[in-house]
Amino acid sequence: MTRPARHRISDLSAEKRALLAQKLRARVADGTSRPGHYDAVILGGGAAGLTLALHLRRMRPGIRVLVAERQRHPVPEATHKVGESTVEIAAHYLRDILGLGEHLQTQQIRKFGLRMFFSSDDNADIAERVELGSSVFPPLATYQLDRGRLENELGATCSRVGVEFLPGSRVVDVVFSADGSHHEVQLRTDTEEHSVRARWVIDATGRGRFLPRRFDLRKDVGHKANAAWFRVGHPIDLGTWSEDEAWHARIRQGRRELSTNHLMGPGYWVWLIRLASGSISIGIVAEAGRHRFEDFNTLERALDWLAEHEPQCARAVEEHRDRIQDFRVMKDYSYSCGQVYDGSARWCLTGESGIFLDPLYSPGLDMIAISNGLIADLVTRSLDGEDVSALASVHDALFRRVTDMWLAVYENQYALMGNARVMSSKVIWDTAFYWGVFGLLFFQDKFRTVAGSPSVAADLERLTDLSNRVQAFFREWAAIDDAPMEAGFVDLYSPLNFMVQLHAGMADDLPGGKFPERFSDNARLLAQLAGQLVTAVIDAHGDRYDDRVIAQVQAWQRDPLITDLIATHRRERHHNPTSEGWIALRPSRSGENPAGHEPDGADSMQQQSSEVSYV
């Protein structure tokens, strides 16, 4: 039987492999130098497709890339698309990797972090709600995006750097080559239909999902939720909803209106995102099992829904109802994909054409950034003559595994949104995990090489188990503790030493072989934090004589992973004390520290941090 080509190539001497690679590069260059021949054709010119095109040109200035986009350009400045908020990975990608820093600084809004307000009674007074957010700007900037402005800038930049950008073009068909030659992509404009040829075809068609529909790749997930959103042409300022001086004094730097604001309730959240064009984006996101889609799937119904659940927001919208600009819905928006990269057939998916999980924490542009980096690695290696069939399988498995980890943050977790006590700790944990794992991998450009580092791959395996167990722990905790939490402020950044460390650490200069050591340190720190959380919750509920509570505490104490986390916390806390204020516990009946810590020096410092972060 004939052996695979990659095995035959590996048998060649180094000199012959170099000669073969040179011939392949020459063949590829010859094929793409002719009119209508490209190294990559990208189907779709939204954020995913245009950033990938620019990424490829930044990596390889001579690469020939065509982007076919059905919409005409320029698009309206405030294009009505989901994904108006960025977090650290996407901000780093746009600013530092793609070189859009000036645009972000001058044409978009610097974001004042994430901010949440948890339900309290009838939600008539925002100052009476538990607030979670930052009191200062973290050093690594993130942004609120007018998507039209961004996509127009991306389109113009791509054209300047040599990308062939064809707005007003629809993809009719793709005929894939069976012999390793160029694929044929059939396009249609208003006046003609023509074909181009491509070494690689990348689907960035968004929810059109051109290739996933063709190859039947869509995978349903257990997370069932719906969304509706609209924009108002007036800068509604949530910071004016209360005149309480103490409430205003919480913020030492920045303005609440510049945060990605979330109004949280049982099974739902409402976003408010200020945009540089002067509009505000307002969205309702709700779990299907708790809030019927039919109750907010039209503008009138959405406004009625807001009046019932978020009356302060509803009144602010009603004052400017005549300036509502648009309305859009997205039913059952979460899905995954059976495959995103194929190195043998030379196709890839990026953005919403492949996987979309949830808008909470704004991961959409992050996933585009991670995926585009892996795709660019495959395309450029392939053009250099490398057989990337095996590498594409590795990248594909890694990306889908990362998204599976991310999905667990949302799946079966919307019920927690009405529990301020549990949810405030969950948000801090989720953010710490994001900074310490995904953020560090991306800032240090290590997603491409995870499989080549045994220690990093092993740590990622352990972190997967840790993340999944902690997400389940939040559900278990909420099931025995639904007591209301007194209104106050949880500062998720400045008083928490580990948050400052993980946030700034993403961008550290880690020369040589320092990355595996840092990644391992972060994995150990996250295990310590999980152990701290579990210990505090068990101690807080240990004196409750309720059969359900007793059974849950005993189940935790018998769980081998839980006991390992507790042991890690006890081992690490004295030489690496972590702030305690991220865990909001029910008041102790004795008035003592409900976490039950010994009064040593480390815990004395933790108690001080707790007093700073929760007011």
What does this structure look like?
A hairpin with a 7-residue loop joins strand 8 (170-175) and strand 9. The protein is globular and about 75 Å long. The strands form 4 sheets. Strands 1, 2, 7, 8, 9, 10, 18 and 19 form an 8-stranded mixed sheet that branches. An 8-stranded mixed sheet has the order 16-12-15-14-13-4-5-20, covered by helices on one side. Strands 3-6 form a two-stranded antiparallel ribbon. It is 43% helix and 15% strand. The model is unreliable at 1-7, 26-31 and 590-615 (pLDDT under 50). The chain is built from 19 helices and 20 strands. The chain has 615 residues and is α/β, with parallel strands linked by helices.
Short description:
It contains 19 helices and 20 strands. The protein is of the alpha/beta class.
| Overall body shape | globular
Low-confidence stretches: 1-7, 26-31, 590-615
Radius of gyration: 25 Å
- Let me know the number of strands: 20
Overall pLDDT score = 91
Q: How does the major sheet shape up?
A: 8 strands, mixed
Distance between the termini: 72 Å
The proportion of strand residues reads 15-25%
SS summary, helix count: 19
Structural class: alpha/beta
